[in-house]
Amino acid sequence: MNSSVSSPSSTVAHDALATLKRVYGYTSFRGAQREIVDCVVAGEDALVLMPTGGGKSLCYQLPALLRDGVAIVVSPLIALMQDQVDALTALGVSASFLNSSLSLDEARSVEQRVARGEVKLLYVAPERLNTERFLALLDSLSNANKIALFAIDEAHCVSQWGHDFRSDYLELTILHTRFPQVPRIALTATADEATRAEIRTKLQLENAKQFVSSFDRPNIHYAVTDRSDERDQLIDFLDAHAHEAGIVYCLSRSKVEDIASFLRTKGYNALPYHAGLDAQTRRDHQARFLREDAVVIVATIAFGMGIDKPDVRFVVHLDLPKSIEGYYQETGRAGRDGEPAHAIMVYGLGDVVKQLRFIEDSDAGDEFKRLQKSRLDRLLALAETTACRRAILLDYFGEAQPNGYRCMNCDNCNDPPDTWDATRAAQMLLSTAVRTGQYFGGAHLIDVLRGSKSEKVLARGHDQLPVYGIGNGIDADTWRAVIRQLVARGLLHADSEAYGALKLTELARPLLRGETSLFMRPIASKQERRAKTIRSKAESLKRARRTDEDEALTSDAQARFAALKTWRTAQANAANVPAFVVFSDATLRAIARAAPVTREALLSVSGVGEAKLARYGDELLALVDSLR
Ligand code: ADP
Ligand code: ZN
Q1: What is the pTM of this model?
Q2: Contact 383, 195 (CB under 8 A)
Q3: In this structure, what DSSP letter does residue 94 have?
Q4: The architecture CATH gives domain 220-414
């Protein structure tokens, strides 16, 4: 219905907005989308850095619709191509993909349709691009001026330092050398400056216009809590998120399995995902996560790259992530649809020791190990801060916030922690480490401080030390927090070669001498933590609904919303596509609120374009009418 729209550039400005409404049903561009679309439509190269959920797909899809010929989209995410093609097809756009999941015949038939000019967007895996067969197809298209653009998605895959490195991506320069007249747009959600520079040089995008969006994800609420009884903590959190889909990240495969079966015994629809499962099971679990309602995926970080599900409502980290980049990428999978979402991390000192050991035991060179350690330090600073978490995250990505900034959508902002003077306690702890030869981990030091009669304490004669029992007045949880704080601030170093023995660093001296002091947050009790989870949820819902149009649904509208969701599930199942391909939650909610009577009113809802109106309009109007 909208194939081969070609436009003289003078009318492009108007066309872009009209096409946005006609095809996607959206009434306005988000952030820099407008400028990016204009740039590519005008035939220039673009490098787009936008956080997950920022709306990158539109940046190449819309120019594809506005330029003559087919857009070639390079993506490493084979599993996703089908969903993307389904979503475009549902919008009335002709799209296809070429990857190893197709048989030879199927691939051939796609190539023929492309050659005949019947395809507007073609997704290809990078390894296919550089084959003679595919280049020949591109040559013939190019000779007829029928390549609209090249889009290079997940462009950070060229980075040899990142964990998503794909050597095929290095070959993509051929697009530029062989077809210099075709505009290229490279996109990524990976923000740091080094990766950015690498993308530019490796893809020969030196002359591309760069579009850097703010990496803030205002709808995500961030919280960090110290580990006490991890499973209880998890259940507390999940109980506040019943009927929602989310991801629980764990470090090891065995923990993934344990937590997933534990959650199933608690009645959650929880599925494990890790690299140790066979490919079929992984695909199956991923598909169920995308298609069923309220699935909780328990996974290692093997899960997630290319999870385009827009309505993931929460991401839990049961173990410390490896870096702030990793944390941000993983939590960024929540709330792509802009609706309120939660990221919560549970961590303890053991995590730090474990990660340090990973780093030490790896085969990497010293330089790389140092880098990894400094990344871990930054993450600890995030975990232990009493200031705004978002400010720390944004600062990390080069978006410094003014001093004292409060986002009002993180645990520390909603519930500013009181601080207490922990100087004396810290001195006791450091002395105990010294007196015991800097040879022991946190648990033993706490035993000594609290005057425990444990076998280890008695066997080593540590009950004879002057520090024995001097920390009796402080509970073990608080001691653990003191230790974490000292490690996070670099006063104590957990020596991974000595099984996590805590050793003093130079930085400990001023504190021991009483020249500096240490203020820290008090430990929340279990009840307080529970209250906090619930409170923060209420806060962020309130925040997300602060505009009039986002007012909470009335009970009538709520009933409509529920009926619309049931209707959507049936549609999605019948078409064998994920629910969001039919309509997003946000669109269903808007329909429930507006209760449209006419086709025009339905079309004015954001997310309802012409193709979907034609396909679902009558049914939706009848459904809404029947509930009046
Ligand atoms: P990214 O690839 O950057 O993670 P997507 O392209 O998947 O993000 O977009 C995220 C969500 O936002 C999608 O559901 C998309 O349809 C929606 N979206 C994108 N642009 C707009 C817009 N201008 N108006 C309304 N919704 C939009
Ligand atoms: Zn904040």
Answers
A1: 0.76
A2: no
A3: -
A4: 3-Layer(aba) Sandwich (3.40)
